[in-house]
Amino acid sequence: MSFEQISRIKQKKASSKKHFLSRQQNFWGWLLITPAVLGLSIWVFFPLVLSLLASFWHWDMLMPPSWNGFQNYAMMFQDQIFWQSVWVTIYFTVVGVPLQIVAGFGAALLLNTKVRAMGFFRTIYYLPSLLPIAVTSALWLWLYNKQFGLFNIILDKFGLPPGQWVFGTGSVIPSLILMSIWGIGNTIVIFLAGLQGIPQELMEAVAIDGGKAWHRFRHVVLPLTSPVIFYNIIIGIIGGLQTFTQPYLMTNGGPANASLFYVLHLYRQAFMYSNMGYACAMAWFLFIITAVIAGLVFKSSTLWVFYEGEGRK
Fold it and tell me: Comparing 58-62, 93-97, 209-213, which segment has the lowest mean pLDDT?
């Protein structure tokens, strides 16, 4: 047997072994991801498809569903309460999210300084985000109480009239925004991680060149934390559009639907009025709006999000 024949036989055996190992790796790979795929299919993809189909049917969960085409969507756009819930949600998100970003970033800047007992202060700032929403809602209801709430007691000490807070149609959303700013512990932690990831060499270089604190903030801190700001904006917008628990526990949409958030209205349609088809149509409308807004923010990020070593996005 010639050398070339022996070489071909060895190559064939090596190729066969490599093919066997590749098939074995593929088998184990698919086997290991099967639970995750099944979980996503059962708990995510199947409900998504079912809700999309249900949005085209009249379904009250008591009688057999009946096809009504786009009637649920037409009813939705003609419903004044629907548009009230849209306005409340947009108001809360447009005003609340920027305030949360600014407050969280400012707190992170303060907590990034080197002073004694900084670990204690960081813990204090983060603690509110660890409390269950039901507990914080009860706490803020006490703070906002018209008779014996802490805020009105303080106003009374200064000779000012008591505030209506969550009990007034004009003050309920600002009051909920104030409460949301109090619970920005997670936002602060993310900002703090971004600030601590800034190379100190850059800060020192700007200082050596005569740059003041504002120059360091403008030309180093902001650009290098822009990805973190971008992330918090996306998460804040998605969370704002899905606000439910606080208004549900504290105001139940009142007074006079002044705090009827979109998801709270959706919840009522689904589980109080058994109008499941209409609620599914509302859910898909919210999904589309959220995706569009997130897409616009992603598109705009090419103008202001900076990644170190890659120029602008």
Answer: 209-213
List all residues 6 or more positions away from 64 whose beta carbon is below 8 Å from its beta carbon: none
CA–CA distance, 123 with 232 (Å, rounded to integer)? 20
Task: List beta partners, residue 66.
Answer: 58
State how far the Cα of 71 lies from the Cα of 303, in Å rounded to an integer.
41
Predicted model pTM: 0.86
pLDDT in tens, 241-280: 999 999 999 999 999 999 999 999 999 999 999 999 999 9
Amino acid at 185: G
Quote the crossing angle between the two packed helices 276-304 and 46-54, to the nearest 10°. 120
* 88-100 CB burial, b ≥16 within 10 A, e <16: bbeebbeebbeeb
For the chain, the distance separating the N- and C-terminal CA atoms, rounded to the nearest angstrom, is: 61
Residue 191 and residue 228 in contact, taking contact as beta carbons nearer than 8 Å: yes
pLDDT above 70 as % of the chain: 91
pLDDT the model gives residue 313: 45
